[in-house]
Amino acid sequence: MKMTNKEYSAYVKKVTPNSKFVPNMLKAFLVGGVICCIGQGILDGMTAAGLPKEDAATATSILLVLTGALLTGIGIYDDIAKFAGAGTLVPITGFANSVVSPALEFKTEGYITGTAAKMFIISGPVIVFGIAASIVYGIILVLFHLF
């Protein structure tokens, strides 16, 4: 079957579903915002309970990672992600999901070659490039302070 570029473009337009850009963006924004508001509520509650702000921030991060991992483990976080899309990736709970999901997926291959080997398959590059970027930014910051 031979098609011209024009015919192929018309065919692609015909079979490609319409983008739901605005509703998807709104859902991502709202769900991501709700997750962040929950985190802020936890932080404010711990600070109000007398925990120093730095300790409260650490405890909040730990609690959000634990919650994200737990919700992934029982299958709820995936349902939220299907609804919200990228709104669940940005908050720290998305990091927990990116670690737990591959661990659960490959657990049948064993603890060493499955769970342990595949656990950081998604989040590993993020950690590596995050550390590399922080080193580069740190060097730039030091250079700016020296000159």
Number of separate domains: 1
Poorly predicted runs of 5 or more residues: none
Could you give the order of the helices and strands? Answer: HHHHHHH
Helix/strand structural class: mainly alpha
**Major sheet size, sense and barrel closure:** none
Mean of all residue-level pLDDT scores: 87
Helix count? 7
Q: Quick one: how many beta strands?
A: 0
* Residue share in β-strands: under 5%
Rg? 21 Å
Q: In whole angstroms, how far apart are the ends?
A: 66 Å
Helix content: over 70%
Explained architecture:
This protein is an all-alpha fold. The chain has one domain. The chain has seven helices and no strands. It has helices spanning 5-15, 21-48, 53-73, 76-84, 92-105, 111-118, 123-146. The longest helix is centred in the first third of the chain and has 28 residues, at 21-48. It is extended, with a radius of gyration of 21 Å. The mean pLDDT is 87.
Layout of strands and helices, then pairs:
Elements: H1 5-15, H2 21-48, H3 53-73, H4 76-84, H5 92-105, H6 111-118, H7 123-146
TL;DR?
By secondary structure, the protein is mostly helical.
List keywords for this structure.
mainly alpha, 147 residues, extended, 7 helices
